[in-house]
# Entry
Amino acid sequence: MSTDIKEAYVRTELHNGIATIEFFHPQSNALPAKILEQLAQAIHSAGNEAEVKVLLLRSGGEHAFCAGASFDELSAIKTAEEGLHFFSGFAHVINAMRTCPKIIVGRVHGKCVGGGVGIVAALDYAIATEAAEVKLSELAIGIGPFVVGPAVERKIGLSAFSQLAIDATMWRNGDWARRKGLFAELHPTTEGMDESIARLTYTLAHSSPEAMAELKKIHWKGTEDWDKLLLERAAISGRLVVKEFSKKAIAGFRKK
# Structure
């Protein structure tokens, strides 16, 4: 296990009915397989705890919210089967968020790339700062936003998703993300964001758990096939990531 993975973590803290799940990786909060696995488990566990009324998902540090897939792990994938296994990690996180009976609020404090955008799209309510820019960079490394695509398209629509997916090197700012519906709120400062998060999570922690569970079912209606669909999408990424184009592109990004 590398030093980076040892420093990385997923932590859950419960206070007054609010379960705060925080993930961290020293490489701009990248998502290696181990973090994805722990994140899916943490969401599933918190969602099934009677004491938990609402979930707050956040990442550590003060810079990037999430850099997406770990380039170290992408470059180490040798077979399509290994690729399927890695990209299935994103499928498991999104499906854990989708099926969690509790509302998940997200704190998006900085730039968000690739799989990180998918996680933001799977939030029930994302609160961000103006520093939170988004980019789906997958096409630039020879794959595509296949696993996260259903979550992103569901949240912002096919047109906006296509813009992100096709122009894979262009950042969209926080205002763009708010106008498209990816962010529910956008705040000029971290303090303003955190005040709004505290207000909303407190309100939700004192709302009817049954009513919130029924509301979440309605919001996610039509996604019942995602257990199968997202794994099929993971297989596409798994096949493409071992192609020569992807290997060269990933190596180029790692040198930057």
Notes: The first strand starts at residue 9 and ends at 15. Residues 159 and 231 are 24 Å apart (CA to CA). The radius of gyration is 17 Å.
